[in-house]
Design a protein that fits this description.
The chain is an alpha+beta fold and about 230 residues long. Helix content is about 25%, strand content about 50%. The chain has an eight-stranded antiparallel β-barrel with strand order 1-2-3-4-5-6-7-8.
Length: about 230
């Protein structure tokens, strides 16, 4: 029995030494693996990706994202165009007719933790709607509407790099300043001739303008960007 206890103690001591030498069980090695000192392999790298999420332009026209990571900053630009890189084409035409959605966002992201960042952005959103009509017994009209909105926004998100790619999520971006313009191009209208007044037509155009102003000035949320870096 005494020999058996000695043998068990020796085996246990040998296993303990092996565990101590195992880098995966070493606290410092495990910490280095789980929390690397650098977010990416290099402190300066270029980024290319595709963005999609809850944004009045991006939801119909995913954005091409070009950026540069320069620890602790990421700065770049996102470009959207429904004619070049659009989705839900059938639904867009059914709901908005002949139309085009485009935009450009310049952004700066500043890391305040391992993966979390604050983001400041300047967005330029454009919607073009052709061949709008307002036809009633009292008159008819046909016109185009062009909307442009420029706004600044602040928000927060998170970004993580892996061996070859990255995944970023703008959790929320709230608008701080707004500049909105509307251009209406009329082809013809018969309201002035038939009813003697175009007040109803002007009210309809104003209602559409206010509706699109609210849509384009809405905040951005949960925009996911995935891509590669080099």
């Amino acid at each position: 029995m005494f020999c058996f206890l000695l043998l068990s103690a020796a085996v246990s001591a040998q296993e303990a030494e092996q565990f101590d030498d195992d880098p995966y069980l070493d606290p410092q090695a495990a910490s280095a693996m789980l929390q690397p000192s650098n977010r990416a392999e290099s402190e300066r790298t270029y980024m290319f990706g595709i963005s999609y999420g809850l944004n009045p332009i991006v939801i119909l026209a995913p954005a091409v994202s070009l950026g540069m990571y320069w620890d602790p900053l990421v700065f770049g630009v996102e470009i959207s165009d429904s004619e070049q890189l659009g989705i839900w084409e059938k639904e867009r035409r059914e709901n908005f007719g002949t139309s085009e959605f485009s935009g450009e966002t310049m952004f700066v992201k500043w890391f305040f933790g391992d993966n979390f960042y604050l983001v400041a952005a300047r967005e330029h959103r454009i919607v073009k709607l052709w061949s709008r009509t307002f036809n009633r017994i009292s008159g008819k009209a046909k016109f185009d509407m062009f909307f442009e909105t420029t706004l600044a926004s602040l928000g927060a998100g998170l970004l993580r790099f892996n061996e070859i790619g990255f995944l970023a999520i703008d959790i929320i971006r709230l608008n701080m300043m707004k500049n909105h313009s509307v251009e209406v191009v009329e082809y013809w209208e018969t309201w002035s001739e038939i009813s003697g007044s175009r007040e109803a037509l002007d009210e309809n155009i104003q209602k559409r303008s206010d509706k699109w102003a609210d849509i384009l000035n809405s905040p951005t949320g949960f925009v996911v960007t995935f891509g590669i870096y080099f």
